[in-house]
Amino acid sequence: MTTPADVNDVRDPELPGRLLTIERDALVPLLRARTDADFALPVPACPGWTVRDLLAHSSGALIRVVENRLEDGVFSPESNDRDIAERADWPHARVVDELERGMTEAGPVIARAGGALDGIALGEWVHAGDVRTALGEPGAYGGPALPAVLALLGTLTRERGHVPLHADLDDVDEPLKLGEVSGERPPGRFIGDAATLVRLYAGRAPGDGAGYELAGVEAAELNLFGG
Q1: SS3 of 178, please?
Q2: Fewer CB within 10 Å, N- or C-terminus of the chain?
Q3: pTM, 2 dp
Q4: Which of 55, 134, 122, 130 is nearest to 88 (CA)?
Q5: How far is Cα 168 from Cα 57, in angstroms, rounded to an integer?
Q6: β-strand partners of 62
Q7: Phi and psi of 103, rounded to 5°?
Q8: Neighbouring-strand partners of residue 214
Q9: Distance in angstroms (rounded) separating the CA atoms of residues 153 and 162
């Protein structure tokens, strides 16, 4: 896996959709092979939610994008709870079907939004990692989508004026430059693997046995999702 250091200087409007497609093709078959009991498992990254709840939230969020239902307060905790409640009586298979539709159809809408919705694709990919963790599946916050994730991180952190960071990744040939480029703050430094870097930006704990170095910036400052 390689990602050139400055590949993210210009937004690629198709990138969020590609990320969703890659994750759809991996996650949906996994979910369809699971038992009903698996959907009731708790999700450690989202206290109070089960796998079913998280999937209902994810599918609801993507369908809102597809159908352009992005009213004030959308994606707030209250809005998320309503999306979950609206799907409470659905069979698990219907939730997975809607998730598949959302991951298929949201990409072109996100592409046309000029960057305003790019973070949703990253958030949905992170939630797929949350589901994998809850199910005990390998590959959470990693896998074949990582190059697209790193590229999207570059775009999002730059456009949001996020803390600057130079990342020397064990599994990427070139250093990765993330965050704002004003030069007002010296960049922090990360040394480790790509999946651990992504976990930090997602506000998730590093994986068991993950070894990394972080200097010039606190881990909490990297969290793109707050909280």
Answers
A1: strand
A2: C
A3: 0.90
A4: 55
A5: 34
A6: none
A7: -70, -20
A8: 190
A9: 10
